[in-house]
Amino acid sequence: MRRASDGRDLHAGGAAVLAACVLAVLPGAVLADGDQALALHDLFRSHAVLQRERPVPVWGWATPGVRVTVSLGEVSATVRAAADGAWRAVLPAQPAGGPHTLDVRTDDGGRRVVEDVLIGDVWLCAGQSNMELPLHRALDARAEIANSANDAIRLLKVGQSSSATRLERFATPVRWHPATPESVADFSAACFYFARELQKHVPVPMGLINASWGGSRIESWMSREALRAVGGFEELLGLLERHVADPGAAIERWGATWQAWWRSRPGVSRGDEPWSMQGGLAGEWRRAPAGLGPWEEWGDPDLAAFNGLVWYRTEVSLTEGQARQAAELSLGPVDEIDQTWVNGRAAGTTSGHATPRRYALPRGTLRAGRNAIVVAVLDTYGSGGLYGPADARALHLEDGVSIPLDGEWRYRIVPADMGSPPRAPWEATGGLSTIGNGMLAPLGAYGIRGVVWYQGESNTGEARRYERLLKALVADWRSVHGAELPVLIVQLANYGMPPTRPVESGWAELREAQRRVALSDPRVGLAVTIDIGDRYDIHPPNKQEVGRRLARAARHVVYGEALAPSGPVPRGARRDGRFVVVSFADVSGELIAYGAEAPIGFELCTAQPDSCRYAQGMLEPQRILLQVPEDFEPARVRYCWADGPVCTLYDGAGLPAGPFEIPIEEP
Predict the structure, then answer these.
(1) Cα 248 from chain centroid?
(2) What's the rounded Cα separation, in Å, for the pair 311 and 611?
(3) Model pTM score
(4) Residue 30 has what pLDDT?
(5) What angle do helix axes 247-263 and 234-245 make, rounded to 10 degrees?
(6) Is the distance from CB of 132 to CB of 212 less than 8 angstroms?
(7) Which domain holds residue 273?
(8) Angle, vertex CA 446, rays to CA 442 and CA 450, nearest 5
(9) pLDDT tens digits, residue range 444-489?
(10) Total domains in the fold of the chain
(11) What is the CATH number of the domain that holds 661?
(12) Residue 459 placed within a domain
């Protein structure tokens, strides 16, 4: 479920784009009186849902200086378009209901009419591939899609786009759709099932805005201001700004940064520069099969199940006349991130397995005679490599001649212990603010009830920083949509084989960061999914249960119902003789253990890393007693601590106790 943009600055030529947008006829808004100067923002289309019980902002563009009157049912507001044509009206808060007609008129005869508008609760569903995963890939897809029709649930899917600067309009057209078998099949399963379940308890129209991108890091969703508040991003943010002003200079500087990373790796000897004309250590390059394709299919046992970094290299000969020209290098799609050089000069970097790589090569890049093209490819999941058709790899000269890159390609595998390379700040899924600029900024101040956030897999291994980033992201959303905006977080599910002994786990640490953020903020809810993952698939299909648990969390956090929002949560741990007693809150009924008389998955640990031991537990209605081994002084308790742990502690509502790590209090 990884998709991508080419990472170009979609905001370039903003004045021309705005002028075109003002003159555009928007689908879903009925054009009246022959008007061509009045435009509504893309969000205000037929079948839209507006947020109930709050002032309703509506905005767009018109002839500068004209009066604009916006009407919705019996209420209206009049404003004047600014000098640049922008206008924004705010209608009084309205109760749930509809359908209504949104009627916008100007005093120079312009008119837009938007039909079938409902008023209810609007939810932004954002994140990476598990939020992106559509109904047609979820559990029991055929039956679920066939029975999905619901006119009181409306869907809007934001197209994937990234930008180095904030966009006012979506890069690709968006439309609202009533839930039907046709519209839900490619819509977020987790988001749809959440609304369907919530509507059983909150019977109002639901508007769902899905903005998701597989493989995306949290930093790509955050504004520059939020990243600056966290700290540590100043240099990269400066480089991002430079990329807007002078892309060529920024790419060259980034190439130097990438090369410095390589030279700093353990085991890299002096002079080992694979991007250079000489190619570094020549003896380490192997011949790739003709046609390339996913490296897992090459028959090399070292690549059969390899996720990591692989160097590619080929050469092409040019005449003096060809070498004097500017050119475009085409590599076709790459899974999933590339850093490309031509003759030792950085040409570009892109993420996303479906995005064709096209890099502009200014005059002076190419040489008469031998030219070296080197591509470092990072793959983190599934297949990897330059996998597109062979004819997609070519050098296109400005005189129209295309030179195929169909000669010999060689490759070099980078040991996994060398780590992952840095990510360019303008990269789509791994950059800074790029997805937020392209997919969230165009939402403006559109009224929403809350946010559902399903992301974290791409940030495992950096939990301490993730906790700060997630808090800053929540604050970021609230700066736009209101200080009381609720946020629901889907905690990472179990993934991978269960351990046979206590282990350290980046996935577990990130789950703990998610738990701590929810614990620190009464307007943040957590949906625990530690028991509904798939050890073999990072995209577990049971999104129905994800939706049910999200809806339960929303009923408590957002709507104030007096129910345990997400299953048993640890209240504390204390030493009592030869036992450590772990007490729980938010227990529906009593604690229960599935499959045995006592739960498994508890660990006792000292203050030192790699010191944990499995602990035998005794079950009581609201607490667990863990026996302390002789000659062992534990300082903390962990539960369900692994990438893919086996966890058996639940409550009477069938909700699991989530993973946690807490200190042990002395008596």
Answers:
(1) 27
(2) 38
(3) 0.91
(4) 45
(5) 140
(6) yes
(7) 235-418
(8) 110
(9) 999 999 999 999 999 998 999 999 999 999 999 999 999 999 999 9
(10) 2
(11) 2.60.40
(12) no
